[in-house]
Amino acid sequence: AVVSTQSTGASLMTGRYPIRTGFWKGNLNPLEEFGLGLDETLLPEMLKRNGYVTHGVGKWHCGSYTWAHTPAKRGFDTFFGLYLGGQSYFTHRDEGNGWLDFREDYHDANGNFVDDIRDDLDGYYNTKLFTSKSRELIKNHDKIRPMFLYLSYTAPHIPLEVPMEDVDKYTTDSIPDNRKVYATIISIMDDGIGKVVDALKERGMMDNTILVFTSDNGARYTSLGSNFPLRGGKGTFLEGGVRGVAFVNSPLLQKTGYTNTYLHHVTDWYATFQRLAGDNPGKHSKIQLPIDGVDIWKSINDDKPCREEVLLNLRDSSKYLHNPEFVPDCVDTEICEECFDLTGLLKLKEGKQRCAQDFFALRWKNWKLLAGST
Fold it and tell me: Cα(337)–Cα(355) distance, rounded to whole angstroms?
């Protein structure tokens, strides 16, 4: 994984390290004029050019400051969910400014782009909405063509909200109230994944499906998560922040029922899916930028090593996000309190660029090198 949800999502979509996409800097602000570059060939775009029907459900958070940066313009045939990073599970409004951020995007029969703001879903729990939409897409899928479904739940992202009628169903009185809520959030997501799998089985699609479940970063301590016995959490480059958990389920796997502990990175899924889809990047008119991921199918298929090193992140003062001529106020080696909040996550100074403090984190085999404020 990478240090934050957005950095991980960007690397999954591109197969490239955050230093290449600009997502090394932390999460996007809602009005920030930035997103995944339009010269990037995103994962759904790559699969779509190989005949796949592509659907995005849930959280996007890879940039939306122009329509061209939104998911239904980046390779997804349809999108159902939120553009930003977090929202109320019930009102679907952004945590910070209260904007409604729940939409259904698609192209109509004439090829016109449609952005439908779903204000009619106010009060409905978004985890359950994402599950229902995914099941609907599977039910209506024409099996003549392969399908790529990207289901990105917001759970268990803050705010920690659940339907109260579900709390007693998933927990007991011996659990503290705050843990009950957190456990219920996870359980509703887990139940939803089971329902999606059931839908695939009902359509007879599981026999030729690769199901990948993966986290985007380590748990955030202030949200009741735990990374024990690893040190650090979300927003840090310590193992608790970047070592994610994942599982793969598929009848196509030769070896199953084991734990693979070899080094993998989120960028590897792009390279793996590209090879499995039979894509030849050189034959397309749009030039694909070099990717950092490696094909890990043999590794997960037969418990074999596939890579020795991973660049977890790198930021240096020569790589400014927007204006290369901008000289930031803080260029020393200490944390600038104006540019960092108390969690260590980057925040934007009003009218200023990101802090230009240098840092990097590199993993090589069982060693890790950290420099700067990580």
Answer: 10
